[in-house]
Amino acid sequence: MFIQWKSIKISCNHCSKKFASRWYLKEHITIVHEGNLLKCELCGRSFNSHCALRYHSNIVHKGW
What we know:
Keywords: DNA-binding, Metal-binding, Nucleus, Repeat, Transcription, Transcription regulation, Zinc, Zinc-finger. By secondary structure, the protein is α+β, with helices and mostly antiparallel strands.
C-alpha cells in the first residue's frame, strides 16, 4: 500500500524552508537556527537530528 505524504504547509520564519509538520519545523529551528545539537547521553557525540541520534544509538550502543 502506498501512503502519500501530507502536502508541505508550514514555513520556517527564519529561512522560509517548508515542513510537513510542526515537529519537523521545531527540530529544524532548534538545530539550524538556535545551534542546539542533540547529544548522545552515553558517549557525548553530537548530532543534527533525532533520526541521526537514534541511528547512532541503535548501531553503536545497541539500542540504549
